[in-house]
Amino acid sequence: MFRTFSPGLGFDYIPIAIAPRNCKPARAGPSRPAQGSSAMPIETSNPPAVHKPGAYAHAVLVTDPQRRLVISGQVGTAPDGSTAEDGEAQIDQALANLGAILAAHGMGPANLVKMTVFLTDPALIPAWRAKRGAWQGEARSASTLLLVAGLADPRFRVEVEAEAAD
């Protein structure tokens, strides 16, 4: 992951793509179609020996991906550089940024393999879950949510890292 520092603005996160590995793990469950293609090597897995998850999958198996996209943490900063003060507005913008990066690579929420979410306020958890659910639709990825004391800029309330594949 690359970060650049701008005086007065803090760190900017630059999305990077990583070439696929040549590994062939066993299939663990039904695969789901990718946006723009008939099939992709992504399968969700929720083993019965682990509690039933909410709006995420316990595991996501990626078998022989053609492309793997690693996305740096997206925050609530709009393309014009502005950042809303409201945490829910920042969630909307972070998801819009994530969607724009996925779309720029011919992908969408169905291509997500893993999301890691950082929130600075526990009161944002219900809003995050509702907005993520509306944004992702039926697609599920592995997911981790962390409450943190702060992010790279004290204005930031949310940051979303993600990985996608097709």
Polypeptide structure, described:
The chain is of the alpha+beta class. It has one domain: 2-Layer Sandwich (60s Ribosomal Protein L30, Chain: A), CATH 3.30.1330.40. Helix content is 18%, strand content 31%. It is built from two helices and nine strands; from the N terminus they run ββββββαβαββ. It has helices spanning 87-104, 125-136, and strands spanning 2-6, 10-14, 16-18, 42-45, 59-62, 68-75, 112-119, 142-147, 158-165. It has a five-stranded mixed β-sheet with strand order 3-6-9-7-8. A two-stranded antiparallel ribbon has the order 1-2. Helix 2 links the parallel strand 7 (112-119) and strand 8 (142-147). Helix 1 (87-104) packs parallel to helix 2. It is globular.
Q: How would you briefly describe this protein structure?
A:
The chain is an alpha+beta fold and 166 residues long. The chain has helices at 87-104, 125-136, and strands at 2-6, 10-14, 16-18, 42-45, 59-62, 68-75, 112-119, 142-147, 158-165. Helices cover 18% and strands 31% of the residues.
